[in-house]
Write a structure and sequence with these properties.
Blueprint: E1 8-10, E2 21-27, H1 31-42, E3 47-51, H2 74-87, E4 91-94, E5 97-102, E6 119-123, E7 128-136, E8 140-143, H3 150-153, E9 158-159, H4 162-165, E10 174-177, H5 183-190, E11 197-200, H6 208-216, E12 220-222, E13 226-232, E14 235-241, E15 246-248, E16 251-253, E17 257-260, H7 263-267, E18 291-293, H8 304-336
Parallel strand pairs: 1-4, 2-3, 2-7, 3-4, 7-18, 9-16, 10-11, 10-16, 11-12
Antiparallel strand pairs: 5-6, 6-7, 8-17, 13-14, 14-15
């Protein structure tokens, strides 16, 4: 059988296929969601991918640590991924999902048989999608400190992950903003990328043990509350303190507060852990049958390559789940037909 081609469209277009039923609706077209859709499309499942166009890594010029894709612009990866997914018949829908609700045992379409989960996916503006299963891959947003000048440089020379950006700023004067408890470890780690690392203590109350560890690694501590980040000609120049001192730095690192975009999951009453994050098994299966969560919405530490793997793992498990349901339904039909069991 030859390959099929999916469509890219905006929800609500006349003549579109919103009224049709899908095996799986994937919410989020980042690495996790697209890789799940790719595997499911190759398994000949009917898949729709819905995306609101707000990738977390949009400010970054390049991504790193992804074998064969190191240094590729994030937007380019997603564009290639969308093309590959469409090649296997998936529908790509540019829209925002407002909420998802269980639809009852018959939402999967098909003859009577064992009860199976089904879902109605409501898109902004009114259209709905019907799905047998749902994959939520909506990611997270980075909660950044409210410091003037920080947001403007985010993803350029105000950075977060040493493994994503450390190589690009190696051997340069680096700073770590003491805006959270992870700053000390971040400064200690960055020491392997540069011999000139400064921890700007800001509001941190450092312990004697922390000061000793920083001194042992030749990480200088600069006391004083941070007022703003100073930039000239589109480049970071330094960090200004309350006393007027500007500490020259060419790049600074900050540990943001990860905030999962998980409203859809908790609208479905999926279980959370003690930290408020959705709980899943190793395949991304949540506590609600038929719902998977993958990528940063479930794991704040997942990089692009990790998220893609999570999407693939979810797709394998999900396809097995669908196949098991189909076998059970087929057995019910077979028995109802009165056919004799082969000897």
């Amino acid at each position: 059988m030859g390959e099929t081609t999916g469509t890219t469209r905006t929800a609500g277009v006349t003549g579109s296929r919103e009224s049709e039923r899908y095996d799986v609706v994937v919410v989020g077209a980042g690495a996790a969601g697209l890789n799940a859709a790719l595997v499911l499309g190759r398994a000949r499942r009917r898949v729709a991918v819905v995306d609101a166009g707000e990738p977390r890594n949009a400010p970054a010029a390049h991504m790193h640590g992804y074998l064969s894709r190191d240094g590729m612009p994030p937007a380019a990866l997603l564009a290639v991924g969308r093309e590959e997914v469409a090649r296997y018949g998936a529908d790509l829908i540019d829209a925002r999902v407002e909420h998802i609700e269980p639809a009852g045992a018959d939402a999967g379409a098909g003859p009577a048989g064992p009860a199976a989960p089904g879902f109605v996916v409501h898109l902004a503006g009114g259209p709905v999608l019907h799905a047998r299963r749902v994959v939520v891959a909506t990611g997270l947003r980075d909660g950044l400190p409210e410091l003037p000048g920080l947001v403007e440089r985010w993803g350029q020379d105000v950075l977060h992950c040493p493994y994503c950006h450390g190589w690009e700023v190696r051997d340069r004067p680096l700073g770590v903003l003491g805006t959270g408890p992870g700053a000390v470890n971040q400064a200690l780690l960055l020491r392997q990328w540069s011999a000139d690392v400064v921890l700007l203590a800001h509001t941190l109350a450092l312990t004697d043990d922390e000061r000793e560890r920083l001194a042992a690694r030749d990480v200088r501590v600069v006391e004083g509350r941070i007022v703003r980040l100073v930039s000239d000609d589109g480049r970071l120049r330094g960090v200004e303190l309350a006393n007027g001192q500007v500490v020259p730095r060419e790049a600074v690192f900050v540990f943001p507060q990860p905030v999962p975009r998980d409203a859809l999951l908790f609208g479905l009453d999926c279980a959370r852990d003690d930290n408020g994050w959705v709980t899943t098994d190793r395949t991304g299966r949540t506590s609600l049958p038929g719902v998977w969560a993958v990528g940063n919405v479930a794991d704040p530490r997942a990089q692009v390559v990790t998220a893609a793997g999570m999407g693939a793992a979810a797709a394998f498990a999900l396809d097995h789940d669908l196949a098991a349901e189909e076998v059970e339904r087929a057995v019910v039909r077979y028995r109802a037909s009165g056919a004799a069991v082969p000897a």
